[in-house]
Amino acid sequence: MFHEDVKLRGLLITNVHTVDGKKGDLGLRDLLLTDGIIAQIAPAGKLALHVTSTKTSYPQEQVSDSHENLLVIDGTGLTAFPGLIDPHVHFRDPGQAEKEDITTGARAAARGGFTSVIMMGNTVPRIDTPDIIRDVINRGKNTGINVYTCANVTKGMEGKELVDMDACIEAGAVLFTDDGLPVRDEAVMRLACEEAAKRGKAISLHEEDSAFVTEAGINAGAIAKEMGLTGASREAEIRMVERDIKIAEETGCAITVQHISAAESVELIRQAVQKAEAAGTKRLIHAEATPHHFSLTEDAVRIHGTCAKMNPPLREERDRLAIIEGLRDNTIDMIATDHAPHTPEEKAREFTKAPSGITGLETSLAYAVKELVQPHILTLPALACKMSYNAALLYGLDAGTIEVGAPADVTLFDMNGTWTFDETVSKSSNTPFLHETLPAPVRYTICGGRVVYRDT
Ligand SMILES: [Zn+2]
Predict the structure, then answer these.
(1) I want to staple 46 with a disulfide (CB 3.0 to 4.6 A). Which of 42, 150, 277, 435 is the partner?
(2) Is the dihedral of CA 145, 146, 152, 156 positive or negative?
(3) What's the confidence (pLDDT) of residue 348?
(4) Structure confidence at residue 74 (pLDDT)
(5) Which of 180, 185, 174 is closest to 147 using CA atoms?
């Protein structure tokens, strides 16, 4: 991973269109990042006035003479977001380094503009003990970005016995999830919610009841039928979402419905959110949408085969539109990639034998801009909330805003630029988005005041 010379005292980004989720569109600003924090935010030109040097180290960068060892990035034409946060990534570490590891996963994240990620725990072994949590957090510290981890809800993700929640939180877990699997047993789910609520932690849920899944990764619909399959029914998701909203409300536990896929689930969450709003109580029910679920339908399986196979599956156009509407009216409050690397050999198997999941960190921002911002569904501040601030708030991460004193995590991208996704820096390339020409190229990813990615 690329790191700036550590001797640099700081970074000055000049004349950049600055967008914060919390404070909204700040207009053109100069941002001074020193000692790992955002030290100053000023109207464009105010801080730049003090820079006189023309010593060029990169076409858009200068090293200032008047500010000793200050790297200056000309932000003209660029948009600054708070460093993006992905609350749902699979880095396959420990145990499946042939697919991805923490270092390569973080590299893909940085390229996509992400400065913070939360790893899921369906690894080998599972992330269900304080020792494993400490190990993955420690190794994440060498990547340049903030690598957070979940703890599983149940030991071994077996759905039976809860992990030691206190020990896992103490070790650094920021949320609980058995992602990859639902928590099927209702009594276990209820107990997990009671215990997580006591500790102020959220549970993130893969809502898919296997009783309604014949073959995973493909919608029970027209395309499955063509292929001679039955597929995964929307009922699998709807029923679990319905059950878990009820349990969350009864126990006061915050839950996130991960990678929402069905129009009916969006509506269930909408009603729950509206009910809480009407009662003036805290929002407990949260939801993530992935870029693939708001960009593609089951038709993508025809074109991309196993690179359009994921759990829950891509569904119909009406589902895609419902997810977009859910993002628009804030029923869905987070965008998450579910970055799920698999090897070419695994994805080359016949459809029903290949594993589910696609990568997504490098293309998430581009698809959000393409499908949500350009068609005027989300404003840029609303997108900054869904790709950064809301996850920071829910999971208690010190990130997600551009304000003085906040960590110097900033993503710079070009709203007028285009790029073609021809090469991935992930270990795996199982994505339907390869070779697409897309908007909003990330130009710089800055984490803790250091440049961890730049577009060269
Ligand atoms: Zn999942």
Answers:
(1) 42
(2) positive
(3) 97
(4) 95
(5) 174
Cα 300 to Cα 41: distance, rounded to the nearest angstrom: 44
Q: Count other C-beta atoms under 10 Å from residue 318's C-beta.
A: 11
Residue 93 catalytic?
A: no
Q: What is the mean pLDDT of residues 112-123?
A: 98
Give residue 180 CA to ligand 1 midpoint distance, Å.
Answer: 4
Neighbours of 211 (CB within 10 A): 10
Q: Which of 338, 414, 422, 455 is catalytic?
A: 338
Question: Separation of 179 CA from ligand 1 center, angstroms?
Answer: 5
Tell me the C-alpha distance between 206 and 192, whole Å.
Answer: 15
Contacts of 345 (CB under 8 A, 6+ apart): none
Residue type at 267 in one-letter notation: E
Tell how far CA 374 is from the center of its chain.
Answer: 20
Residue-level pLDDT at 9: 74
Q: How many CA atoms lie within 13 A of 210 on its CB side?
A: 6
Amino acid identity of residue 26, one-letter, is: L
Q: How far is 73 from 241, CA to CA, in rounded Å?
A: 46
pLDDT (tens digit per residue) in 86-98: 999 999 999 999 9
Between the CA of 65 and the centroid of ligand 1 the distance, in Å, is 50
Domains of the chain (ranges plus CATH)?
A: 83-395 (3.20.20.140)
- For 345-404, the pLDDT digits (tens) are 999 999 999 999 999 999 999 999 999 999 999 999 999 999 999 999 999 999 999 999
The one-letter amino acid at 245: I
Q: Residue 62 above 80 pLDDT?
A: no
Helix (H, G, I), strand (E, B) or coil at 453: strand
